[in-house]
Structures are given as structure tokens and as C-alpha cells.
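Appendix C: a fully annotated inverse folding record. The material below is reproduced so that readers can follow the format used throughout the book. The structure is listed first as C-alpha cells, followed by the designed sequence.
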């Protein structure tokens, strides 16, 4: 889903656009909104250019989110979601195959030779290996979804955006 969200007829600066904390975090926010307000979430129109929501639906969604913020539903959803994502198993690193080290492949060797010349040649012929820079030598890394935490403040800020955007569209 797109993360460029713009108000159609904003009546305040906060309604001009919405920037999630992390580029991929809009997916988590949308999942939260659809879980907490499924009837309004169904009003979202998936077009070829992205998502849209009309002004009346934006205000209704903002009202529902404010109600969920007040009764603790958002806080509970966010805590459960983040706990679930945190416990996901680590993923094996594709670059090093889980070994945590990388020996120079031909493209890497050529890059090193160009950069360091004779020094690089001596290191590679001596069997030099380096720690994998994708997994920092662990052989695994956290599931990609774990880098997209959702916060109660994200929902609060999106509610404020909805209240002042006059409808929105995404690119």
C-alpha cells in the first residue's frame, strides 16, 4: 500500500498530508483501522491510483478511532500486534546462507581490487573472509515486519489528519 497520503480539501495544515513514522508502517496502521472499524474500513475505494476515502467516511473513521482511543481498544490492539511481531522467528540471511560470513565472490573481489589494489589481492589470496554486512554476522535477522512498529500516537495523528483532510487519496 502506498505511503503518500494527501488530503483532498484540507481545512488545516494537519489535513494536507500524512507521513507515517516509518515508510512501511502505513500497512500496520491500515490493518489496525480495519480491525477496529471494519464497517468504515470497507468504505475505502481501491483504485488504480491508490486508495481513497470520502470526507464523510473520514470524519466517521476519525470519530470511531477517537472512541477506540478513549476506551483503550487502540492501546490493546497495538500492544498485541507488536508483541506478536516481536516473537516472530528470525529469518535466515539470504546473502551469507546463514553462515554469518561472506567470502569474496567474483563481483566482490573485483570491487575490492579496484578499491584497494594489491592490498585486496593479498587479503583474498590469504583466505580473508568478512562478517556478513546484511545480518551483522548473526546468520539470521529479524522478520521485516518487526521494523514497522505501530504506536498509539500513530493512530491519534491519523485520526487528526482524517478530521481535517476533507477526504484523502494515496499515490
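Designed amino acids, in order:
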Amino acid at each position: 500500500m502506498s505511503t503518500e497520503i494527501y488530503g483532498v480539501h484540507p481545512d488545516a495544515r494537519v489535513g494536507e498530508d500524512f507521513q507515517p513514522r516509518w515508510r512501511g508502517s502505513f500497512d500496520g496502521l491500515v490493518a489496525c483501522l480495519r480491525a477496529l472499524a471494519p464497517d468504515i474500513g470497507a468504505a475505502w475505494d481501491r483504485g488504480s491510483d491508490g486508495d481513497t476515502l470520502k470526507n464523510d467516511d473520514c470524519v466517521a473513521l476519525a470519530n470511531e478511532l477517537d472512541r477506540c482511543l478513549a476506551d483503550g481498544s487502540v492501546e490493546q490492539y497495538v500492544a498485541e500486534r507488536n508483541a506478536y511481531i516481536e516473537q516472530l522467528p528470525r529469518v535466515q540471511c539470504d546473502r551469507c546462507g546463514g553462515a554469518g560470513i561472506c567470502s569474496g565472490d567474483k563481483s566482490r573481489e573485483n570491487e575490492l581490487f579496484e578499491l584497494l589494489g594489491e592490498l585486496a589481492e593479498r587479503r583474498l589470496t590469504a583466505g580473508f573472509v568478512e562478517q556478513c554486512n546484511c545480518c551483522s554476522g548473526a546468520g539470521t535477522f529479524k522478520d521485516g515486519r518487526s521494523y514497522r512498529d505501530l504506536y498509539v500516537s500513530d493512530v491519534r495523528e491519523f485520526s487528526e489528519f482524517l478530521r481535517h483532510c476533507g477526504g484523502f487519496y494515496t499515490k
